[in-house]
Write a structure and sequence with these properties.
heterodimer; A: 124 residues; alpha+beta; mini-chromosome maintenance (MCM) complex, domain 2; 4-stranded antiparallel sheet; 2 helices; 8 strands; B: 196 residues; mainly alpha; Arp2/3 complex 21 kDa subunit ARPC3; globular
């Protein structure tokens, strides 16, 4: 049976995928409150919820041997004993909805909400 | 990896002997043998893929999904149980390789992608192109994995969804093109596969 590589209907498929990805992205950014907070989950339970604005200096948390640094800007997985190190490679989490998962250690770090930046001045 | 293949070899030899005994096209031994080869191929491809260096602008953990080529090939040429068996072989390998949570995530992704794949093939009125087929199955694989990871971690991980959709589409195109190129070569060995 001969199957075509590309048909004209595929354009609709790609449009739908891009559209839904865009909508997901916007919904994700728009959701959450005006205060930025970091949530840390371990073994399916929320262990910490840290309000970013309340931090003056970076704090370190250790959950299931995973070291997480929380700052007023967001969070960062510093080290993990897992073999793949995907959570460490994820880097800084700063925007609303940013998530780092370490499946082997069953740890999730999530950013919720975003600081609404006030305009300094509006010039016409 | 090497050990698993070693274990497979005497087994496969026996299967080949059985194949010779009954020259019937629908013999069970032939089914098992072809499934074994496809499963081994899927494992080899996913191992080769893990050797590829990380590309800087890609999110960590994003993979090409070369093993999906094998799943698609078996969905196109073999029957439903055979396709599911290839998915299962892949997941069981990840159980040995990286643990129970990886097995669960891999199984959910594999099953959802196989389900979407087989469903697309069922609809004969719509001529689904190779790229559409592979993109749909890649995205279904991603969504299945994400759902499984969400269940395991106990929190919705939908922050990953936009990136997974986009990269599923991009890598789906790549695997679709590869399958389209490889397909005619493999189809020359028609005696080994049933072409639907």
């Amino acid at each position: 049976m001969e199957r075509k590589l590309f048909s004209k209907y595929d354009i609709f498929l790609f449009a739908a995928i891009l559209l839904s990805a865009g909508i997901c992205f916007l919904l994700l950014r728009a959701s959450g409150g005006a205060r930025k907070s970091v949530e840390i989950y371990a073994d399916s339970e929320r262990i910490y919820e840290i309000d970013c604005a309340s931090l003056s200096a970076p704090e370190e948390y250790q959950v299931n041997a995973v070291v997480i640094e929380v700052t007023s800007e967001g969070a960062l997985v510093k080290s993990s004993p897992c073999p793949d190190q995907l959570c460490v490679q994820r880097g800084r989490l700063e925007e609303n909805g940013d998530t780092a998962v370490c499946a082997p250690q069953r740890v999730v770090v999530k950013i919720l909400g975003s600081e609404k930046k006030q305009d300094d001045a509006i010039v016409y | 990896m090497a050990q698993m293949e070693k274990n497979n070899f005497p087994d496969r030899g026996m299967r080949k002997q059985k194949q010779k005994q009954s020259s019937q096209k629908t013999s069970r031994a032939r089914l098992v043998a072809v499934t074994g080869i496809l499963g081994a191929l899927a494992l080899t491809l996913s191992f080769l893929e893990s050797l590829l260096p990380a590309v800087p602008f890609l999110p960590p953990g994003a993979k090409l999904g070369l093993a999906n080529i094998v799943v698609m090939f078996s969905a196109l040429t073999a029957n439903v149980p055979q396709t599911l068996a290839v998915v299962l072989v892949k997941s069981v390998f990840s159980l040995f390789h990286s643990g129970l949570s990886a097995f669960f995530i891999s199984l959910c992704g594999g099953l959802l992608s196989a389900a979407v794949l087989l469903l697309c093939l069922k609809i004969r009125r719509l001529p689904v192109s190779m790229i559409a087929l592979s993109v749909c199955s890649a995205i279904a694989h991603n969504i299945g994995q994400l759902a499984a990871a969400s269940v395991i971690s106990g929190t919705g991980l939908w922050g990953y969804l936009p990136a997974l959709l986009v990269f599923g589409a991009v890598f789906g195109v790549v695997t679709g093109v590869v399958l389209k190129i490889v397909m005619p070569v493999l189809l020359k060995m028609q005696h080994a596969f049933y072409i639907r």
